[in-house]
Write a structure and sequence with these properties.
about 280 residues, alpha+beta, Ribosomal Protein S5, domain 2, 4-stranded antiparallel beta sheet, 12 strands, globular
Length: about 280
Amino acid sequence: MLWFPYAKINLGLAVLNKRSDGFHNIESLLHPIKLFDILEIIECDSDSYQDELSITGLSLDIHTKENLVWKSLELLRSYFDFPFIKIHLHKQIPIGAGLGGGSSDAAHTLLGINQLFQLNISDSTLVELASQIGSDCSFFINPYPQYAKGRGEILESLKINLNALKLLLVIPEFTISTKIAYKKIKTQTHRFMPIETLVQPINNWKSYLTNDFEEIIFDEFPILSDLKEKIYLNGAIYASLSGSGSVIYALFSEKIEIELPENYKHYWMDFTAYTD
């Protein structure tokens, strides 16, 4: 069985107060995009007595048992009985980019095992299980735009139609640690929460829809600030850092030619019609 865990972008990101559990409360619109990892889940032969996880593609500098796919498998085994499995993950979503690839892989592991063995786990239970793995894992159980609150696990569907626009992703050659970014973030007073701006015409987003991580990340990596400004000079309607990572994304009315820093990957894509 093949699954294609998709990436996401953050449309606005307000980091609020730090919680007693060590996390921060946030508000952000999470929007799925057409960039995927590949996840294969199959049942082991009858003579196998353990699960297996193999990984190809982009390098992950972590032990296999620290991978969120493995943690998802272990969590599901603590609640449900099913045969041993082989999982192969091919990584294509960049690491430390703010695109949620690891969280998506984890959520799709839950979805895949549930379907493969007909465990009949409800979506609401899958969302709860995913929230135990990571703050934004729950988002990837259902593939449509959702407004996130709490530490990212409180989700509300939000209809937003960006289908007429083109999305540009610019992926630098360096990554940014989510843990370090949150350690450095300073909470601030927000004139507008993301939800208040998202309901306005998109031409207003440049002035009011902000990502709180940009201040600290742009200070450390001024090339990203320069890149965002250059993208605007090339006609972007809206541009932003995604999450707490290193990727800059931009919304355009049409695809254009743009000169980017050497060794930076970039992708153009349409928005998937997740608005039904």
